[in-house]
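Shapes recur. One chain:

:::
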Amino acid sequence: MHTFTLRVYYEDTDLAGIVYYANYLKFIERARSEWVRELGIDQAKLRTEQGLVFAVRRVEADYLRPALFDDVLTVQTALADHSGARLVLDQAVLRGEQTLFKARVTLVCLTAIGAATRFPAAMRAAVTQVL
């Protein structure tokens, strides 16, 4: 399981000092990017050299408890399922031991013209090492 730590800043919150719901998606996106980087995949290089990008196809999200201004949060990312053409990740945002937000995210790989394609061989090989 990959972990990513962040702090809630004022800009992440609404007038009540509670994290705005859409910002959880930003938090888990940052964690996914770091997970991919840890797998040894350079997304910028993949885009410029092969014309491939990763895209979110589906998100199922559960908002369980509010995060607040100045909280330190941990985002956990775990591979739930995969095939040559999709990855399914379970992600959770925690404050200490308390789970605040959970999501199941399906990722796909797209070409420069937006057509779905298989993940690159290096990515598929890296993912099999995670299991």
